[in-house]
Specification:
It contains two helices and 36 strands. The protein has 452 residues and is mainly β. It has a 30-stranded mixed β-sheet that branches. Helix 2 links the parallel strand 26 and strand 27. The model has no long low-confidence stretch (mean pLDDT 95).
C-alpha cells in the first residue's frame, strides 16, 4: 500500500491552518487507490472529523500532534439515516470509520480533542468521541496518546477483531463523561498495555440500552483485558450499564487501579435486559478506591426518578425479557489498599439475584476517609453512604467467598441480606464489630458452620 505524506498534499503542520478539507482530500485519494498509510510527520495539525476508509492506516510520527478544530461545524452529525438502527445520534468523532475493514491508527504521536471547548455543555450527549468505529472489522490502535476528549474517548460499536495496544489516554479527572475505552457490542477485543487516566469510567464493556436498536442485537463477547493501568475515573474496569445485548466471555488480568472510585464495577437495572455471564477477573492491584468490587442491579442513571417502582422497587417483580441477569463471575487474587467506603457491595434484584459469583484470595484494607467523608458504594437511589464497612451482599444466590482478608473499621466484616446458599471459608478479619451478620437468609455457611 502506498504512503501519503500529508504535508505533500496541501496539509499544513503550522498549528494555525484548518486542515479538515485537505486531510479529507488525501484520504479520498488513498481510498481511490485501495487504501494506504496516511502519514503525519512531526508538527501540529488542526482538523475536525477525519473519516478513515477500508485498508487504511493513519500513522502519527513521534512529535506529530493533531488538534481538534474549534469550529463545531467541522464535526458532521452521524444520524440513523447514515447508520441504520443507530439511535445514539451525535457529532462524528475526531477520527472515525463506518462499515470499513482493516482500519488502523498507530505511531508515537498525539491526538488532542481540546474537549474544553465542549465540556461546559456537559449535558450535551452529542459531543464527539475521539475515536469511533461503527460496524467495522479488524480495527487496531497502537502506541498513540489521546487526550482531552470531548466525551467518550475510544468507542468501537458493533465491530469484530479490535486490538488496542500500548495507547495512553489522559482526560482531566473532572471532565464530564470522558470514559477511556468503551467497546460496545463488539466481539474479539484485545486490550493490553494501556494507561487510562480519565474523568469517568476507565474501561467499560457495553452492549446498548433497551432502546438501542442497533447495539442490542450484538453481544459484547470474547474480550481480553491485560497489563493495563487505570487512574482516577469512576471505575477501573466496568460492565454496563448499557448491557441489553449481553456481555460474556471476558477475561481481565494483571491490572493496576489507582484512585478509580470503584475498581471492578458491574451496573444495570430493570428494563435493560441482557445477561452478564462468564467473567474471569484475576491479579488486580487497587489503591485509593472507595469500593473495590461493586455489583449493582439498581443503577439509578437512566431512570426517570426514584419513585419509578417498575425500575427501583425492592419487591420481587415478574421476570421478563427485560430482566437483567448477572451470573458466573469469578474474581481472584485481588488486593485493595486504602479503601474508604466498603470492602465490596454485591446487590442484585429480588427476581434476578446475582448468581454463581466466586471471590477468592481477596484482601481489602479499609482506612478512614479524609474528614470522615462517606461515599455511596453504588449509585442507587436508596443506598446510604458508608465509611469503613465490610462486604455487603443482598439478593444473591450460590455465592462463594474463599480466603478473604478484611481490615474493617465499622460494622461486621460481612453482612448478608435476603440471600441463599452463600459459603464463606478462610475469612480473616481485623477490626469491626463482628465477623458476620445475616438478615432474612437461608443456607449461609461460615467455615462449615451454618449461621443463617
Amino acid at each position: 500500500m502506498a504512503l501519503y505524506d500529508v504535508t505533500r498534499y496541501g496539509v499544513y503542520n503550522d498549528g494555525v491552518t484548518n486542515n479538515t478539507k485537505a486531510i479529507a482530500d488525501v484520504i479520498a485519494l488513498a481510498a481511490s487507490n485501495g487504501g494506504g498509510t496516511i502519514y503525519f510527520p512531526a508538527g501540529t495539525y488542526i482538523s475536525g472529523s477525519i473519516e478513515l476508509k477500508s485498508n487504511m492506516t493513519l500513522y502519527l510520527e513521534s512529535g506529530a500532534l493533531i488538534l481538534g478544530s474549534e469550529d463545531k461545524a467541522d464535526y458532521p452529525m452521524i444520524t440513523k439515516e447514515i447508520v441504520e438502527g443507530y439511535t445514539r445520534e451525535g457529532h462524528a468523532a475526531m477520527i472515525y470509520a463506518i462499515n470499513a475493514e482493516n482500519v488502523t491508527i498507530e505511531g508515537r504521536g498525539t491526538i488532542d480533542g481540546r474537549g474544553y471547548n465542549w465540556w461546559p455543555d456537559k449535558e450535551n450527549e452529542h459531543r464527539p468521541r475521539m475515536f469511533q468505529t461503527i460496524l467495522c472489522d479488524n480495527v487496531r490502535l497502537a502506541g498513540i496518546t489521546i487526550k482531552n476528549s470531548p466525551m467518550w474517548t475510544v468507542h468501537p460499536i458493533c465491530c469484530r477483531n479490535v486490538t488496542i495496544d500500548g495507547i495512553t489516554i489522559r482526560n482531566p479527572w473532572d471532565s464530564p463523561n470522558t470514559d477511556g475505552i468503551n467497546p460496545e457490542s463488539c466481539s474479539g477485543v484485545h486490550i493490553s498495555n494501556c494507561t487510562v487516566d480519565v474523568g469517568d469510567d476507565c474501561l467499560t464493556l457495553k452492549s446498548g440500552t433497551e432502546d438501542d436498536l442497533l447495539q442490542k442485537q450484538y453481544p459484547c463477547e470474547n474480550i481480553v483485558v491485560t497489563n493495563c493501568t487505570m487512574l482516577n475515573g469512576h471505575g477501573g474496569v466496568v460492565i454496563g450499564s448499557e448491557m441489553s445485548g449481553g456481555v460474556k466471555n471476558v477475561t481481565i488480568s494483571n491490572c493496576v487501579f489507582n484512585g478509580t472510585d470503584r475498581g471492578i464495577r458491574i451496573k444495570t437495572r430493570r428494563k435493560r435486559g441482557g445477561c452478564v455471564e462468564d467473567i474471569l477477573i484475576n491479579n488486580i492491584m487497587m489503591t485509593n478506591v472507595f469500593a473495590p468490587i461493586t455489583v449493582n442491579g439498581y443503577y439509578q442513571c437512566g431512570g426517570t426518578s426514584p419513585d419509578d417502582m417498575s425500575l427501583f422497587s425492592l419487591e420481587k417483580l415478574p421476570v421478563s425479557d427485560d430482566t437483567p441477569v448477572m451470573k458466573n463471575i469469578i474474581i481472584s487474587n485481588v488486593r485493595a489498599t486504602k479503601a474508604t467506603a466498603s470492602a465490596g457491595y454485591i446487590y442484585g434484584i429480588p427476581e434476578s439475584p446475582v448468581e454463581g459469583l466466586r471471590i477468592s484470595n481477596y484482601s481489602v484494607e479499609m482506612v478512614p476517609a479524609e474528614d470522615d467523608i462517606k461515599d455511596k458504594p453504588i449509585m442507587a437511589w436508596h443506598i446510604k453512604k458508608t465509611a469503613g464497612t465490610g462486604l455487603y451482599c443482598c439478593f444473591c444466590k450460590d455465592i462463594v467467598f474463599d480466603n478473604v482478608s478484611i481490615k474493617v473499621l465499622n460494622g461486621p466484616a460481612v453482612r448478608i441480606e435476603k440471600s441463599e446458599n452463600i459459603r464463606l471459608t478462610g475469612i480473616s478479619v481485623t477490626g469491626g464489630d463482628s465477623v458476620s451478620e445475616t438478615v432474612e437468609c437461608s443456607n449461609i455457611m461460615l467455615n462449615n458452620e451454618k449461621i443463617g
